[in-house]
Amino acid sequence: MQKKMYVLVRSEFSQGYVTAQSIHAVSEFALEHTEEFNEWNNSTIVVLGVRFPRGMDRWEYILRSKGKVFSTFLEPDQEGQPTAIACYDTGELFKDLRTI
User: Fold this and answer.
1) 100 pLDDT band (50/70/90 cuts)?
2) Whole-prediction pTM value?
C-alpha cells in the first residue's frame, strides 16, 4: 500500500485554523524527518479530524506505540497544546477518522 502524508487536526477548529495547523504539522515533520519527507515528495496528503484536545494525546500514544514516524505541532496560541500531527504512513490506523 502506498504511503501518504496523514495530518490529524483537532476538528473543533475553523477551516482556516485547520489549514494553518496542518501546514505547521507538515513543516514540523519536514524539519524532524527529512528522509521520510523527501520520500513523500509532496505527494498525497489527507487531513483528518480528531475530536477533543485529549484525542491528540491518544493518537500520539498510539503512533508512538506502533513505531510510526510522526511529528506533533504544539500551538503557542493554544497554551502549547498539540493541535496537529503529521504522519507519513499507509493509513490503516486512520480508517475510522473522517476527512475535514
Assistant:
1) confident
2) 0.95
pLDDT beyond 90 at 51: no
Evaluate if residue 76 carries a pLDDT over 90: yes
> Which ranges of the chain does DSSP label H, i.e. alpha helix?
15-32, 34-40, 53-65
Residue tagged 486512520 (cell numbers): 94
Residues 6+ apart with CB under 8 A from 45: 4, 5, 6, 7, 22, 26
- 74, 23 contact by CB (below 8 A): no
Q: Mind listing the domains of the chain with CATH numbers? A: 4-94 (3.40.1490.10)
Using CA atoms, how far apart are residues 97 and 100, in angstroms rounded to an integer?
9
Please give the C-alpha separations between residue 3 and each of 7, 20, 33, 43, 76, in angstroms, as whole numbers: 13, 23, 15, 9, 30
